[in-house]
Design a protein that fits this description.
The structure holds 2 protein chains of 2 kinds. By secondary structure, chain A is mainly β. Chain A contains no helices and 11 strands. The chains are: A mainly beta, B mainly beta.
């Protein structure tokens, strides 16, 4: 079993839809949870981070962490064509390197 | 957020030559930098972790004699792909971590696309 599992998609939604992206993980020691957005041929860009369990909201983006279920989510409200990208979840414990999911390719259709 | 730059953004080289990629943290001092490679439609695979002033720590399966990493200052790390071969063609991305605890944000460079002919 991989440490971090993420459905690679692709996921295609109409403009304005609510998008739900998810990752599961097996290592209960993970403490920091991140979501990165990566456009084609570019480096990943940090969108959201959460420490331990809970919710965090930033504009149209909401990140949720459920440590009891080892499950994290990213919600995108009112999705836009400019949100079309690959979304990578990542997590770590302490100062260890980030462990990434495979990434989910999202297309928002106008 | 903080800015990490990489140079060059793309490079094409002949098989057997060496290529150096630079990674700079532009507005903060990074005690720790990471090097990743990414194949098309795949996730980022960590190659090595470099700490300023000490030897890099390589992930299992990564040849340290082939992928030379130098982190000589708090703002610069370099990756040299020695005797490159076509199978080394990939997207190489560096990342720098801010030193401030308790949460150390990790910022990524724009990546370098290496093509070995």
């Amino acid at each position: 079993q991989k440490e971090v599992e993420q459905d690679p998609g692709p996921l295609s939604v109409p403009e304005g839809a609510i998008v739900s992206l998810n990752c599961t993980y097996s290592n209960s020691a993970f403490q920091y949870f991140m979501w990165y957005r990566q456009y084609s041929r570019k480096g990943p860009e940090l969108l959201m981070y959460t420490y331990s369990s809970g919710n965090k909201e930033d504009g149209r983006f909401t990140a949720q962490v459920d440590k009891s279920s080892k499950y994290i989510s990213l919600f995108i409200r009112d999705s836009q064509p400019s949100d079309s990208a690959t979304y990578l979840c990542a997590m770590r414990r302490g100062n260890t390197p980030l462990v990434f999911g495979k990434g989910t390719r999202l297309s928002v259709i106008a | 957020g903080a800015v990490v730059s990489q140079h060059p953004s793309w490079v094409i080289c002949k098989s057997g030559t060496s290529v150096k990629i630079e990674c700079r943290s532009l507005d903060f001092q990074a005690t720790t930098m990471f090097w990743y490679r990414q194949f098309p439609k795949q996730s980022l695979m960590l190659m090595a972790t470099s700490n300023e002033g000490s030897k890099a720590t390589y992930e299992q399966g990564v040849e340290k004699d082939k992928f030379l990493i130098n982190h000589a200052s708090l703002t610069l790390s370099t990756l040299t792909v020695t005797s490159a071969h076509p199978e080394d063609s990939s997207f190489y991305i560096c990342s720098a971590r801010e030193p401030a605890p308790p949460y150390n944000e990790q910022f990524f460079g724009p990546g370098t696309r290496l093509t070995v002919l």
